[in-house]
Amino acid sequence: MENPDMELDLTARMVAVAGTLRSNSNGVDTLAQAVTKTAVDCIPGTECAGVIACLGAHGEPVAGNGLASQADQLQHELREGPAVRPKTDRSTVWIDDFDSEDRWPRFAARAQELGFASMASFRLFSGKDDLGTLNLYSSTKKAFDERARTLGEVFAAHTAVAFSVLRERENLSVALTSRDLIGQAKGMVMERYGIGADEAFALLARLSQESNTKVAEIARQVVEAGSDPS
Predict the structure, then answer these.
(1) Do residues 43 and 69 make contact, with C-beta atoms less than 8 angstroms apart?
(2) Which CATH superfamily is domain 4-165 in?
(3) Which CATH number fits domain 173-226: 1.10.10.10, 3.40.50.2300, 3.30.1330.30, 1.20.1600.10?
(4) How many whole angstroms separate alpha carbon 158 and alpha carbon 171?
């Protein structure tokens, strides 16, 4: 991209991505798709992009355009590549030429089979939270020049913030749902046994400890059963 106002364009596009997130409730998939499209549009040298999000013990590919999804899936399956480094390694990886890449030889060979010659991998993190990676791919060797690298770092930082906000929103949603369930269960226990709110919660908490089950799950079972929790 030769536009001298590229940085301003990138900022404007990130605002648009944030707007997409606010207006759509589909969560991580929607955000990841918006991020990969914007990366291709705004970061010089990028032909396709993918996002691997931390959804559990390991990262999982959640979005990608072009052949990026296949390349990300290879990293996931091989457990090899810049996106599956130890979480303590938060540095950005630049691979200028897969021909000379010896850190991840199996992934490098398979990436070349897909037609890729270079890539960049940005760790997405916020504070202590590892949110995943943003991976950029190109069929050209040394595709990412200094300008692309600077924009890539800025874009990755914006992306990490967006994923962090999304995670907080989802955690809040889960917390509110759990609170509502516990409130309903307490009401049912109070009515059933003629006890107060504190005693009802204490009963749910005791059942939670005895069964090694979260209070919210006990509450859900009580509400669904509509009967005696014991």
Answers:
(1) no
(2) GAF domain (3.30.450.40)
(3) 1.10.10.10
(4) 20
Question: What is d(CA 201, CA 186) in angstroms, rounded to the nearest whole number?
Answer: 6
* Entry pTM: 0.69
Which DSSP letter does residue 4 get? T
* Inter-residue contact 197 to 204 (CB < 8 Å): no
As a whole number of angstroms, the distance between CA 73 and CA 61 comes to 6
* pLDDT tens for the 230 residues of the chain, in order: 445 556 666 667 666 666 655 554 457 788 888 889 989 988 999 999 999 887 554 567 778 889 999 999 999 899 999 998 888 889 999 999 999 999 999 999 999 999 999 999 999 988 877 889 999 999 999 999 998 998 899 889 888 888 888 777 766 656 666 677 778 788 888 888 888 877 877 787 788 788 888 777 787 788 888 744 44
Rounded Cα–Cα distance for residues 82 and 64 (Å): 16
